[in-house]
């Protein structure tokens, strides 16, 4: 589901503030840079508002944000909808006991961690990141939450790269995005 | 300056709740360090909201146009403050994370150096800036953040942290910029700590007074 297709009038401003940086981090990649969106207070607020409007009143008890750009959007959403915020981090950053979930990269593997005890069985969870590409990271995030008994209600991203078919990697969990980039 | 020292917030029960919501993890990332874990604060919606509200109340009328947050835990507080006061948010990041043209500022760690980067063009000459991070220890990271902003001609109004020591050197050492802190770090009374020179490292007042042992012990640590 995409607010882009729904043509909310705020979407145009949000999309126009996202900067594309060619050949980062390597040749051929057109990097979707959300830092320019954060420089426009109205567009940034509209971004958060669109998510808050969707999730308020849905009994979401936890917003899990993926390091590091998920930390920019997730906490603001959590605060507005009355949920706790849980950071999902790269290895060895979280100080307490953690569970880990490995996932595949284009070359090699990486790992996402979550504090034990942060999320409880029955928690209704939203996963937030700035962008979904192949869906590998989001998938790892969902697994972490499900392993502790949470119910992942939806994944939410500002940007989707639909050509990479990340949506299909989410084991049937719904995905909500604001803009698509081809 | 500590929030609780001021007339308006003296005895404010929110500060006690915020302090108690922060978990202390002994010996992370290494022995002797009492790590102040703010992730437990983020699990307490009321305390997290109070944290943001106290900063917003302080900064809303100061004409601040940019909130700069230090990666990664500064990202958890900075954007909400920026949104509430109508400022832009600028992430200050470790090397090679920002995709566009950047300026870099090196800073000293206990062993070696690290580097903070900011996008060129994000901040304009004359903008009034707030720097935010979860915790201040030696002040090295915050000093680098201040230098980045000043290099592009911004005026750093203040640095704000949730947790910080009453360390006179740090308070005066942030390039002359004021530092605003909500709560002091806490220790654990009964933790099975290794001792340093036969003295336990876990007592709360050690954190307040700083380490006066034979070899220096960093009781708080800035890692990202």
TrEMBL record, chain A:
Cell compartments where the protein resides: Cytoplasm
Entry similarity comment: Belongs to the purine/pyrimidine phosphoribosyltransferase family.
Pathway entry: Purine metabolism; AMP biosynthesis via salvage pathway; AMP from adenine: step 1/1
Matching InterPro entries: Ade_phspho_trans, Adenine_PRTase, PRTase-like, PRTase_dom
SUBUNIT field: Homodimer.
One BP term from GO: adenine salvage
GO cellular component: cytosol
Domain of life (superkingdom): Eukaryota
Domain Phosphoribosyltransferase: start-end pairs: 41-163
A GO term, aspect molecular function: adenine phosphoribosyltransferase activity
Presence of the UniProt keyword Chloroplast in the record: no
Pfam families: Pribosyltran
NCBIfam families found in the cross-reference section: apt, PRK02304.1-3, PRK02304.1-5
Catalytic reaction list: AMP + diphosphate = 5-phospho-alpha-D-ribose 1-diphosphate + adenine
EC number, UniProt record: 2.4.2.7
Protein name according to UniProt: adenine phosphoribosyltransferase
Enzymatic class: transferase
Keyword Transferase: yes
Alphabetical UniProt keywords: Cytoplasm, Glycosyltransferase, Purine salvage, Transferase
TrEMBL record, chain B:
Domain Phosphoribosyltransferase: 44-163
Keywords: Cytoplasm, Glycosyltransferase, Purine salvage, Transferase
Gene3D superfamilies recorded: 3.40.50.2020
Record protein name field: adenine phosphoribosyltransferase
Subunit structure: Homodimer.
Keyword Cytoplasm: yes
Species of origin: Hibiscus syriacus (Rose of Sharon)
Highest taxon, organism lineage: Eukaryota
Pathway membership: Purine metabolism; AMP biosynthesis via salvage pathway; AMP from adenine: step 1/1
UniProt-listed HAMAP family: Aden_phosphoribosyltr
Catalytic activity field: AMP + diphosphate = 5-phospho-alpha-D-ribose 1-diphosphate + adenine
Keyword match Cytoplasm: yes
Family matches, as NCBIfam families: apt, PRK02304.1-3, PRK02304.1-5
Location of the protein in the cell: Cytoplasm
Annotated EC: 2.4.2.7
